[in-house]
Write a structure and sequence with these properties.
Thymidylate Synthase, Chain A, 14 helices, eight-stranded mixed sheet, alpha/beta, 342 residues, two-stranded antiparallel ribbon, 2 domains
Length: 342
């Protein structure tokens, strides 16, 4: 087993990029082309609030990452909501109106139980419990058929989450069957450290370490010449997403409703401005970034830059600026990134 320890996601990215440059990394075939693969990789982030990889080039699609986090937290599985922020996603998940392996739906509805709510109640009453497991993989729906063929284009790459409260902090272990270094890992870290921070807020405690086991951490050869880590790893002083359960539910519902407005194909320019007002700072910044990205996609680049200036989160500001500066000046189809590798 290969293990990596880092304080931040940026530091981890630098370590992993360097590791994948080594000549002894295994070559492995896949249905999407040849890959370089590391088996049985574990890593730990000591400060999971530093979840953003700003040194990745090409830069991450920060608006899509934020939209997907909210989609997960609110238990959604509709393809249209995410498709508004990632035009290439349908090609990787089968093009169906709903996502077969949607993480949020798996967590909040698929098994007939809201796993997040039950886990919160259980750890609130018994913080020493070792039995809180969030299940994402369902063998009834996800195992290959008897010929070894995938039953869907959107099989969950994340399998299970293990939650522990130790020394007054929430420890998170994420287990993945398959993890694309370039197209998946930067987004997976955001997804589950965000859940960790929100969940810690529900419990009224701090965040411990974020840990992940990737049974297959791989990079497609087609991406090998594209991927790089540029600049020194950075730390950001970002506002917290942690809120008590009731306040969190209200805020998440409000944010999602406002993003629904932005997700419309033909949203009017006047509808975009002011959507972030009246929200806690961390969540207002999410709406600002998504509003800026919507304006950019509509071709209003100057207005997009203007509204982005209202973001008070230096991590999100940095990431959106990187994305904005690398996008076409016309309203062309934008480059998206899929979720975890298959």
């Amino acid at each position: 087993m290969q293990t990596f320890n880092a304080p931040t996601a940026n530091d981890l990215w630098a370590l992993l990029c360097e590791r994948f440059r080594a000549p002894e990394v295994n070559h492995q075939s896949s249905d999407r082309g040849p890959t370089r693969e590391l088996l049985h990789v574990g890593f730990s982030l000591s400060d999971p609030s530093q979840r953003w990889i700003s040194s990745r080039r090409p830069p991450v699609n920060v608006a899509f990452a934020l939209a997907e986090v909210l989609w997960i937290l609110c238990g959604r599985r509709d393809a249209a909501f995410l498709g508004a922020w990632n035009s290439q996603l349908a090609g990787f998940v089968g093009g169906e109106p709903t996502h077969h392996g949607a993480y949020g739906y798996r967590l909040r509805a698929h098994f007939g139980i809201d796993q997040l709510q039950r886990a919160c109640e259980a750890l609130s009453r018994n913080p020493d419990s070792r039995q809180v497991v969030l299940q994402l993989w369902d063998p009834r729906h996800d195992l290959p058929d008897v010929e070894g063929r995938a039953v869907s284009g959107d099989i969950p790459c994340n399998v299970v989450s293990l939650l522990k409260v130790r020394e007054g902090r929430l420890e998170w272990m994420q287990v993945m069957r398959s993890n694309d270094l370039f197209r998946g890992l930067p987004y997976n870290i955001v997804q589950f450290t965000f859940l960790q921070e929100v969940f810690a807020g529900w419990l009224g405690i701090g965040m411990g370490t974020y840990n992940q086991l990737s049974d297959s951490l791989h990079m497609y050869e087609a991406d090998r010449l594209t991927i790089e880590a540029r600049g020194e790893p950075r730390r950001f002083a970002s506002p917290s997403y942690a809120l008590p359960w009731g306040a969190s539910v209200d805020v998440l519902g409000t944010v999602l409703a406002r993003i629904e407005v932005l997700s419309k194909r033909d949203v009017a320019l006047r509808e975009v401005f002011g959507l972030h007002e009246g929200l806690p700072p961390a969540y207002a910044n999410i709406v600002v970034v998504l509003a800026a990205e919507k304006l950019r996609r509509l071709g209003h680049r100057d207005e997009a830059a203007a509204i982005a200036a209202a973001c008070t989160d230096p991590a999100l500001s940095t990431l959106w600026t990187q994305w904005y500066q690398t996008r076409p000046t016309t309203n062309a189809v934008t480059h998206g990134t899929r979720r975890a590798g298959t």
